[in-house]
TrEMBL record:
This is Adenylate and Guanylate cyclase catalytic domain-containing protein. InterPro entries: A/G_cyclase (IPR001054), HAMP_dom (IPR003660), Nucleotide_cyclase (IPR029787). Residues 176-228 form the HAMP domain. One of its GO terms (biological process) is cyclic nucleotide biosynthetic process. Residues 261-391 form the Guanylate cyclase domain. Pfam families: Guanylate_cyc (PF00211), HAMP (PF00672). The lineage of its organism: Bacteria, Pseudomonadati, Pseudomonadota, Candidatius Mariprofundia, Mariprofundales. GO terms for molecular function: adenylate cyclase activity.
């Protein structure tokens, strides 16, 4: 039996069992309530009969007494009335057996009471002033015995069965999402195992299932990137070795135009920081951040395009094709901001060095620029200039995105302060501040930043270059 059917039958069984327990509980509660209500009614009726019999019994009018009792029994089917006069004579009205406990009741000033050991039998003395006229006992049938007839019990059973079938159908419907995902992951895993890294499972929302799908797609994307690196260099390499080898290997290669995501990083008040470098130990502190920047960019599948003073540019979806490269660029930017906070570069006045980042998307030309030893592989285009411009718009620790990339970012990214800005050429552009929206993304950003810093500290302690 498939897992989907097992879950459906289990849900149906639980619903059926729950319905049965609930029905039995309701029946028990209602029967108790009906019994109490019936007992109160019998007590009230007996009290009324006792009051109605006082005058006829005082006048010894047996004809009137018989008439009253026969009328009562006729209007109350199943009732039994036992009447004993003060002289010991007794009468019975209605069909049934009079218990000995009822026939032996005392008649002297008998108050309304329940006959001990006899269910639904009540007795009361008939008194006028201080004169004992006799005793009357009354038994009335309990209607709750017929409340839940076979037809009603069958109806309850049918409703419970219908609820169980509905629960099973709903479980079968909703469990289909999970079993479908499991089949997709199984099929995708077989494709990846066969060397096909183009596999991508569509999103399943923002819950736990969506997170599992996102993790799987991210894993496949990283494997694809590693495989392409292997095809270029013949073996797997660390990010630093890939970057160095890439620059050496592609000396005479020019690439056509392609669409990329560009991340521009600007240090706040770089000129002021430069003036403090002598007191702060030269460029070593700044180079620490550059190494972290390089590691985080490489981990997200990007390529560090340029570093010039306090200005840095990274490109995503180049030189290799990347899935969701816009999300990778945004996540990389958030990780860099988090890492800069953790690293805490300080100025001479004790303040902390801060960075701000711009994100853009567009078509660029890629190839080598320059001549001789100053020839570098670069990406050139309006998207690079736009990202650099957006970086200048933000404040400390801000990530500002504008244009097409805003519409491509996943649900996990919060877009706040959305507004239209006019560029230098007069073009209007929608921009927004980017921040992590989900707890999962917040945790991933913090973990990636702390991991990069930890690797840097380990590298410094061991003297090993990663």
């Amino acid at each position: 039996m498939s897992l989907r059917w097992s879950w459906s039958l289990f849900a149906a069984f639980l619903t059926l069992a729950g319905s049965a327990v609930m029905a039995l509980s309701i029946i028990a509660v209602e029967r108790d309530a009906l019994r109490v209500e019936r007992d109160d009614y019998v007590r009230y009726t007996l009290s009324m009969l006792s009051g109605a019999l006082r005058m006829p019994m005082m006048a010894d009018s047996r004809t009137e007494v018989d008439r009253l009792m026969e009328e009562f029994v006729a209007t109350s089917p199943g009732s039994i009335v036992y009447l004993r006069w003060a002289n010991g004579e007794s009468e019975q009205f209605g069909e049934g057996v009079i218990p000995d406990a009822v026939s032996s009741l005392p008649s002297h000033h008998l108050q309304l009471l329940s006959v001990e050991g006899q269910e639904r039998w009540y007795a009361q003395g008939v008194n006028l002033n201080k004169t004992d006229l006799g005793v009357i006992a009354l038994h009335m049938p309990a209607p709750e015995e017929d409340v839940y007839s076979s037809g009603k019990k069958l109806l309850i059973a049918m409703v419970a069965l219908l609820l169980a079938m509905l629960a099973g159908a709903l479980m079968y419907r909703f469990s289909g999402t999970l079993t479908d995902l499991m089949r997709r992951i199984s099929m995708a895993s077989r494709q990846v195992g066969g060397g096909d890294f183009s596999v991508h499972i569509p999103g399943y929302g923002s819950g736990e299932i969506g997170e599992a799908v996102g993790d799987f797609n991210q894993m496949v994307s990283r494997l694809s990137h590693r495989q392409m690196t292997h095809e270029v260099f013949g073996r797997y390499q660390s990010p630093q070795q890939v970057s160095d080898g890439f620059e050496r290997t592609l000396v005479n290669t020019d690439h056509p135009a392609r669409t990329v995501a560009v991340m521009a990083v600007e240090m706040v008040d770089f000129a002021g920081y430069i003036s403090d470098l002598r007191e702060l130990g030269g460029l070593s502190e700044l180079n620490r951040f550059f190494r972290i920047l390089h590691a985080i960019v490489s981990e997200n599948g990007g390529h560090l395009d340029a570093i010039s003073g306090g200005h840095m540019v990274a490109v995503f979806n180049h030189p290799f094709n990347l899935r969701n490269y816009q999300d990778r660029a945004a996540k990389c930017a958030l990780e860099l901001i988090e890492a800069s906070k953790m690293l805490s570069l300080h100025r001479s006045d004790g303040s902390t060095v801060a960075f701000k980042i711009g994100l853009a998307q567009g078509e660029v030309l890629t190839g080598f620029l320059g001549a001789g030893r100053h020839r570098e592989f670069r990406a050139v285009g309006a998207a690079v200039s736009l990202a650099e411009h957006l970086a200048l718009l933000g404040s400390e620790h801000d990530v500002i995105a504008g244009g097409e990339i805003l519409h491509q970012l996943a649900y996990a990214f919060e877009k706040s302060g959305v507004e239209n800005r006019t560029l230098a050429g007069g073009e209007s552009l929608q921009v927004a501040k980017i921040s992590p929206k989900t707890e999962r993304l917040i945790a991933e950003v913090q973990k990636a930043a702390s991991t990069a810093i930890h690797h840097l500290e380990t590298e410094g302690a061991t003297g090993v270059s990663k």
